[in-house]
Amino acid sequence: MANPVIIFVIGGPGSGKGTQCEKICKKYGFTHLSTGDLLREEVASGSDLGQSCNEVMKKGKLVSNEQVLALLKKAIHNNSRTNGFLIDGFPRQLDQAIAFEKEVSPCNIILFFRCSDDVMIKRLMNRGLTSGRVDDNEETIKHRLDTFHDNSVPIVEHFGEKVVSIWAEREPNVIFNDVVRALDTLPKGSKEVKK
Ligand code: AP5
Ligand code: MG
């Protein structure tokens, strides 16, 4: 694999991770891997693993680190021709980050989209009218927020200056200007990824 950049994208549920990742991919051509999407694909496949993941996601809890990391490694392996991976919704726990960096590659930068709970709830309730996602309902959204608040601080503290914190209660294009400013400082591929 030709030294892809690794970007972690974190933020609460509905903070706009997916929306910004779409824009980033268009501009930089990185490969977008959303752990939530990978898990929903597994659910859709009808596998036993998918069924058990669905139960966890319905409760707004975290799927086990081993399962998430296995799905992520497979997706990385299947997309080996890329100049970078945009890993959306990961890490959700510090242990995930540590395991990834040990077993796959160090990350170059972490984008952290910050948003108040009230705004995230409003966005997700609104999306829930049409999304069909098992977790876009009032009760699960509360649990997703709790899970996020319980786990995000150690990640941010651990990565220190690698974390670029971006206020995400603005227009998507305005937020994206800050994203571009952060990503334009990255070297053009500098890490070796283990398969
Ligand atoms: P995941 O799918 O990652 O869900 P999430 O983190 O809860 O966040 P969302 O995808 O709902 O929101 P988003 O931040 O991407 O925002 P979006 O751009 O869509 O994870 C789902 C579940 O899978 C987890 O709860 C967990 O169970 C499991 N899981 C996933 N990763 C895991 C991991 N690493 N380890 C263990 N378990 C894991 O925007 C939301 C809405 O807001 C949209 O309608 C959008 O149009 C709108 N919007 C976006 N930006 C703006 C803006 N700037 N202004 C106004 N509206 C906006
Ligand atoms: Mg998302």
Automatic annotation (TrEMBL):
Keyword Cytoplasm annotated: yes
What EC number(s) has UniProt assigned to this enzyme? Answer: 2.7.4.3
The family database entries (CDD domains) matched by this protein are listed as: ADK
Q: What class of enzyme is it?
A: transferase
Q: What's the chief localization of this chain?
A: cytoplasm
Its keywords, alphabetically, are: ATP-binding, Cytoplasm, Kinase, Nucleotide-binding, Transferase
Pfam families in the cross-refs: ADK
Coiled-coil zones: none
Under Gene Ontology molecular function, one entry of this record is: ATP binding
GO CC annotation, single: cytoplasm
Keyword check for Zinc: no
Query: Which HAMAP family does the entry mention?
Result: Adenylate_kinase_Adk
PANTHER family reported in the protein's UniProt record:
NUCLEOTIDE KINASE
> Which family, according to the similarity comment?
Belongs to the adenylate kinase family.
Specify the protein name: adenylate kinase
Provenance organism: Oppiella nova
